[in-house]
Every structure is written in C-alpha cells, then in structure tokens.
C-alpha cells in the first residue's frame, strides 16, 4: 500500500521518537507537504525533516492535532487486520484485570487506536468515534469487533461535542444487531442498568471503578450525599455496602429515575433518595436546612475541558468543595474527584487544603485514586491520564 508522504519540520520528530503519537499542524513542513493537499481521515507515511520514516498516520488538515500515528511499520496501515490485532491485545489485558466482561475494552491511544473508545457490557458493545480517520473505518471496526468479541449488538454512540472539531456529524445508531435502550453491568459486586442510548457518553463511567470500591469500604453505617450522581454509580454502591442512607443529587430527571431503578435492582431502594436540581444550589439549600452528612461524594463533570477554561474551572471546583465541606458532620469523609485532564492532582489537593483552613477544619488525606486498568495510561502520552479521586477525613481544627 503506497501512501502519500507527510514531511515534518526539523526537530518536530522528537515527541514521536519518545513514543508520542500526535502531530500538530505547526510541526508539518507545509512547503513540501501542504496540509490542504490531504483529505480528512486520509492515511499518510510520516517522515522527519531528513526523510527518515516515522510511521503511518491518519490526518485531518483542519485540526490542531493534524495527524495521529497508528503504526510504526509501513506494512501495517489502519485496516481491519490491524484493528483485529489491536483488539485482541486490548481484550487480553481486560481479561487479565477483570473476572467479568464489564469494562472499557478500547481506550484510544493507550490501546493503539487513537480516536476510538469501546465500552463492553457483557454481550453488548458501545462505540464512540472521535476522529475522521477512525470514522472512515466504521465498517472495519464493526467487522473486527464481531470477529474478536462476538457481541449480540453494537451501538455507535457518536453524539459528543468532540466530533464537531473533526468536522464530523453526530449520530446514534445500531451498527450491528439490536441494542436495548438499557444494558446491565456489574461493578464491584453491584448490578446496574446503564442507559446506553439516552445517557451520558456510553451510558456508564467505568473509570472510577477502583475509587467506588474504596467508598464501599468506608460506607457502612454512614449518611451519604452523592453530588453529580448521574445514575448512582457511587451512591448505590455505598448503599449496597451498608450505608445507612444515601441522597443522590443530579440535574437530570432521567438520571435520577435510573438511580431509583438501580437502587431497587440491588434491594436498597428504601435507603436511597434523590434530589433533582443544580448541584451548587442544592448544596446551598441543604446547608441552610441544617443537613449534615458523614460522607459527601463530589464527582462533577469536567469543569476544565480546554486550557483556556482553567481559571473558571478551578473556581467551580473550589466552590463545590467549599459547599461539600460545609455539609460534613464533625467527623466526616469527603471524596473529591475530577475528570479534568488539565486539573493536576496537587492543585485539587491545594483547593481542599485551602477550604479546610477557610472553614476552620482539620483535613487529612487518606487515599489517592486514579483510573483502572481498562483505562491504561500510555507511558509517553500524559494526556491519557486524567482521572483523580482524593479521599479526606475532615474534623474540627485542633
């Protein structure tokens, strides 16, 4: 397979040689290989400024990340064959890490498939494609998944804002078989129904699996508040582990209906209640009503999606943690989580520490958590490490 050449500027190959997979538009020698000469999703052979081959990539001339390396060998372009090979590697890791088939099967760059995410719910797969290069491989992706996993159904959940950056339309459609509106999964011994068609992202967030397991450890007998609860991943697991009561707060009526259903599924419906409303306003209301909790869980959406959002996003995280701390009983536990890649763990720790000083509390960090083995971190791509979860004990100041 003969591919057109994409030539890099001098020294622009350093990150690729270090293992990174992305090429930025300002690293391309556009005098020799104009980006406008390529079509979105087209595969190319990347060369450094001296003409040395770096690997096969697919391009999008209209984006800042204009190319993503997919293979270091010219013999292996992106195709069904390569997809099958990478899927088998990804599957072998998940089968080593997990005893049951509920996990993120493909996590983009970390599994050598930039632009592709696949979540597995037993016999059902939900696929998200975020790049033009992967979009051109739609049929090959389906065929490869059928060959490797043999699922009953595959759903394309391609409705995220990230697709607009790549010039891609949004859609949700069955790619193979017939996908139910809800599918069952099990996490840390607790059963859930995930709304794969109408829910957020793929319908479930597997990334906090290990952190939710730690909450189960501390939850027995506690009064728990789960803020930004979505479908109850944290709260229902706390109740299943023996929490005395759990209150889940979310702005989505659909999500809270699912919380109730998931609580009933696990026989803890009488100990789980829901509150619909803006998280910040609801926390303020609970403070004014004199409510206090033994554990408050904060797992908000990404307040910082781009670098330019850092200032406003940090303010949002600070406000959320201040309100949460005011809702804690005298001896309480605070779980402060973030899925914002641009928020460093130490910065989140600083925010909680500062909140403790401002509210006259003694704050100690008990545990740090991150993403599980189905969200492996690519050793050369720091962007693949985004999740953090901090568990604090908060008591009156000494």
Order of helices and strands: EHEEEEHEEEHHEHEEEHEHEHEHEHEHEE
Strand composition percent:
25-35%
Query: Share of helix among residues?
Result: 25-40%
Q: Tally of extended strands?
A: 19
Q: In DSSP terms, counting alpha (H) and pi (I) runs of 4 or more, how many helices?
A: 11
Rounded average pLDDT: 96
User: Class by helix and strand content?
Assistant: alpha/beta
EC number: 2.1.1.-
Domain S-adenosylmethionine-dependent methyltransferase: 182-392
Keywords: Cytoplasm, Methyltransferase, rRNA processing, S-adenosyl-L-methionine, Transferase
InterPro entries: PUA-like_sf, PUA_sf, RlmI-like_PUA, SAM-dep_methyl-trfase, SAM-dependent_MTases_sf
Task: Give a written overview of the molecule.
The chain is of the alpha/beta class and 398 residues long. It has eleven helices and 19 strands. Helix content is 29%, strand content 29%. The strands form four sheets. The protein has a seven-stranded mixed beta sheet with strand order 15-14-13-16-17-19-18, sandwiched between helices. β13, α7 and β14 form a beta-alpha-beta unit. It is an enzyme of class 2 (transferase). Belongs to the methyltransferase superfamily. RlmI family. This is Class I SAM-dependent rRNA methyltransferase.
């Amino acid at each position: 397979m003969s591919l057109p050449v994409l030539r890099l500027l001098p020294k622009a190959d350093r990150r690729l040689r270090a293992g990174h997979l992305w090429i930025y538009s300002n690293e391309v020698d556009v005098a020799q290989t104009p980006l406008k000469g390529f079509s979105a999703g087209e595969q190319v052979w990347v060369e450094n400024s001296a003409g040395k081959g770096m690997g096969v990539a697919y391009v999008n001339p209209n984006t800042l990340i204009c190319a993503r390396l997919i293979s270091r060998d010219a013999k292996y372009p992106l195709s069904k064959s390569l997809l099958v090979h990478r899927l088998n590697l990804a599957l072998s890791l998940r089968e080593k890490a997990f005893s049951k088939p509920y996990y993120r099967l493909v996590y983009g760059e970390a599994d050598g498939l930039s632009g592709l995410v696949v979540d597995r719910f037993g016999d059902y797969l939900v696929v998200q494609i975020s790049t033009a290069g992967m979009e051109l491989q739609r049929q090959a992706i389906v065929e490869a998944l059928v060959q490797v996993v043999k699922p009953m159904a595959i759903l394309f959940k391609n409705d995220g804002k990230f697709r607009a950056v790549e010039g891609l339309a949004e859609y949700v459609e069955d790619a193979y078989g017939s996908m139910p509106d809800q599918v069952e999964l099990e996490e840390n011994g607790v059963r859930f129904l995930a709304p794969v068609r109408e829910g957020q992202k793929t319908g479930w967030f597997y990334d906090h699996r290990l952190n939710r397991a730690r909450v189960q450890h501390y939850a027995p007998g506690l009064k728990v508040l789960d803020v930004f609860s979505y479908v109850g991943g944290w709260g229902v697991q706390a109740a299943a582990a023996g929490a005395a009561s759990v209150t889940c707060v979310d702005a989505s009526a659909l999500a809270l209906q699912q919380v109730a259903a998931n609580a009933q599924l696990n026989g803890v419906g009488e100990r789980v209640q829901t509150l619909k409303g803006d998280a910040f306003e609801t926390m303020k209301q609970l403070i004014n009503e004199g409510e206090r909790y033994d554990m408050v869980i904060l797992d908000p959406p990404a307040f910082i999606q781009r670098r330019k959002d850092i200032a406003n996003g940090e303010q949002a995280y600070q406000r959320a943690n201040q309100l949460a701390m005011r809702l804690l009983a005298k001896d309480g536990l605070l779980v402060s989580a973030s899925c914002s890649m641009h928020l460093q763990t130490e910065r989140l720790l600083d925010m909680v520490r500062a909140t403790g000083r401002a509210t006259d509390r003694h704050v100690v960090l008990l545990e740090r958590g991150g993403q599980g083995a189905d969200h492996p971190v690519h050793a050369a791509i720091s962007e693949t490490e985004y999740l953090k979860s901090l568990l604090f004990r908060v008591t009156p100041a000494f």
